[in-house]
Amino acid sequence: MNKFLFAAADFLSRPPGFYVMIIAMVVCTALVPFGLTNAVTYALSVAAIVITGVVLIQGYRDTAAIHAKLDEIIVALNDTRNDVVGLEHADPKDIRAKLGKLEEEAARTAPEA
User: Fold this and answer.
1) pLDDT band for position 113 (50/70/90)?
2) Can you tell me the distance from the alpha carbon of 67 to that of 44, in angstroms, rounded to the nearest whole number?
3) Coil, helix or strand for 32?
4) Which stretches are transmembrane (predicted)?
5) Is residue 54 classed exposed, middle or buried when 0-12, 13-18 and 19+ CB atoms within 10 A define those classes?
6) CA angle 84, 89, 94 (to 5 degrees)
7) 3-state secondary structure of 89
8) CA dihedral 26, 27, 29, 35 (to 10 degrees)
């Protein structure tokens, strides 16, 4: 199922998929004068849900790619701590605690102006 969702999101997030969605919305709107208001409302609601799903999936993919790149940089640098790699998978409380520690450390080591 994931492969299908990612493929659909990939298609719909590119120009051909966008054109398909625009055509579908124009067709739905053209059907309103024929008394198909309920069908049009349903179709446009489904389209809105699909578009929202595409945005969420693309956001997930982008965020995962950014985390992978940042993790690679952290691992490649000798002066960094590797305990922050994968922190995005931790409990929100653990993330806030780690962020607090990092901010305190940054404040202590920052040069005074």
Assistant:
1) low
2) 34
3) helix
4) 18-36, 42-60
5) buried
6) 65
7) helix
8) 170
**Helix residue ranges per DSSP H, 1-113:** 2-12, 15-30, 37-76, 92-109
What one-letter code names the amino acid at 75?
A: V
Q: How far apart, in whole angstroms, are the C-alpha atoms of residue 75 and residue 85? A: 8
Distance (Å, rounded) from C-alpha 7 to C-alpha 22? 19
Question: What pLDDT, in 10s, does the model give residues 17-34?
Answer: 889 888 988 888 888 888
Location of structure tokens 């199922």:
1
pLDDT tens for 34-66 read: 888 888 888 888 888 888 888 888 888 788 888
- Which residue bears the tokens 């053209």? 30
Among 68, 56, 103, 58, residue whose Cα is nearest residue 95: 103
Residue 27: both structure tokens together: 């067709």
